[in-house]
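User: My instructor asked us to take a sequence, write out its structure as tokens, and then describe one feature of it. I'm not sure where to start. Here is the sequence I was given:
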Amino acid sequence: MAKYVGAVDQGTTSTRFMIFDHAGQVVGVDQKEHEQIYPKPGWVEHDATEVWTRTQEVIVGALKKSGVAASDLAAVGVTNQRETTVVWEKATGKPVHNAIVWQDTRTDQICNELAKDGGQDRFREKVGLPLATYFSGPKVKWLLENVDGLRAKAEKGEVLFGNMDTWVIWNLTGGPKGGVHVTDVTNASRTMLMNLETLDWDPDMLKVMGIPKAMLPAIKASSEVYGHCKNSGLEGVPVAGDLGDQQAALFGQTCYDPGEAKNTYGTGCFMLLNTGTKPVQSKNGLLTTLGYKIGDQPAVYALEGSIAITGALVQWIRDNLKMIEASKDIEPLARTVDDSGGIYFVPAFSGLFAPYWKSDARGVIVGLTRYINRGHIARAVLEATAYQTREVLDAMNKDSGVDLTALKVDGGMVFNELLMQFQSDILGVPVIRPTVAETTALGAAYAAGLAVGFWAKVDDLRANWGKDKEWKPVMGEEERAKLYKGWKKAVTRTFDWVE
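Assistant: Let's start with the prediction itself. The structure tokens for your sequence are:
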């Protein structure tokens, strides 16, 4: 009898494999980073072959460390950095180009051209997304236009496209030897190519982007058996869950009722609100996206606010400015001062995401005086994450007509107590961290386990959720309003920087 479920969590900076028991507790984990490639300013790439190598290594590593055998796993799920785009040869499994990462801005001209006729929201009603460099469709278009001979191969069905979930599942299930070419509704909803109502590739969108249907994966539910592992130490285990990382976190946080929301603090920050079985169109710069789909049940939709740079800003002051040795050092450094000294750091490194969607914005630090030291900058770095989250929450409240009463949080930065307290203060609502903070991998494991009957129903998953810590607001309303007003002013200083 299988005792566990596994999850591949293929993230922006690293890949890990996690093993969970029936109570949703972590039994084993292994994690490895992969290279970040920056060929030009604003360009971000990953070597998809390296990512697959790391994936195989962490699967073997986690099984070995935990003493769990592949035969102990009921199923494996996959979750992934969304929108990161790979095109590869079907016959060899060799990528035709480095993967183009979600943060990459090389498609800004393509997006601007498409926006000339009908504006940035030209396709929003159909696909739920504004025209932005963030999404996969324009990235595929760029590859077809810039890699020699690729279009002809794509039309013949000789090359395949996928976000990272598709790449990992294809390789897990055999790769060139019969690998399954699939994606799920959540990942497909990030391409700009899927119709929100039909949950299928939209012929008009494919035509506009010039993308042959032959290269696209089949769109499946987030929880169903897609195939079985043929390699990487998981032989015979069903691959049965697939969710984009933020939707996986929503699922892992057990936000199964309309009005429930979570915020994940990773490389970027992503807040998702369950809106039920009907898509809600945003009037305030949010994305209408798929939350999840279990088997043949109706799909569940979500509103999402995406922030490009949060944890990545901590990495930036660590790696580029060498202000700290390790990411965890930012909290003690920020605690050397009582406040940010009146400065704001707006990290629009790759433009601004929700609720602005301005790809021509760039990062700024404003309010500098001789008084400012490293501690103030460290504090402003943390506060930037909290302010950006407040902007998204305000937009969400307006769109949904529901005022959020508490925020469930997860991801690496939720162990930063200073940030979590400031987050609660600037939102004016409690912030709650669950006992298992790695909810992304947990969500993928849940989806896979549900598909094979390891868990019978979502109520079993709700019973697993536990509260680890809660932060309540202590800041006065006047102070909160004043600080937030300063932030809004600082953001305007980033606009229209790139000509």
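For the description part of your assignment, you could build on this observation: The chain is about 35% helix and 20% strand. Try explaining in your own words what that tells you about the chain.
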